[in-house]
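Build the 3D complex.
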Amino acid sequence: MATGTDQVVGLGLVAVSLIIFTYYTAWVILLPFIDSQHVIHKYFLPRAYAIAIPLAAGLLLLLFVGMFITYVVLKNQKVTKKSQ
Amino acid sequence: MTKLTQWLWALVLLGSAWAALTLGALELPPTCQEILWPLPTYLLVSAGCYALGTVGYRVATFHNCEDAARELQSQIQEARADLTRRGMRF
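Done.
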């Protein structure tokens, strides 16, 4: 079996993914079937956020990936320029 | 047909079906309409969650081989010493 921190990180990732999945499934699929006066609607944001938040998160992810690639490319260029 | 064209074809078909249904091609009950329009985002999010969960699970259950690791490290030291002896700089 994997060592201590590896196990903790791995199980943490599994837990996070399960939490996100159940919350999002409840939000998108279960909530429309529940009567709008029920108290559970208090725990969920307005429905428009169900698209806005993943979209914003996806754009942020793309931004970070792009910045990382730019950084690596620039670092490589500087290294080749120095060795010339 | 290449894999890429297959995937693009499937995406175009499903996307146009979703667009047609969201814009009211068939008369669906309001709860169905309400579930339908976030559906692509929902599928993306659940695919992401599945990927994350699988990575986490595999990280947690990875079989660590202590002996193989130590043997590999000693072989790396050996190779390093040999190459420095032959004049290669690290």
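Chain A has one domain: 4-83.
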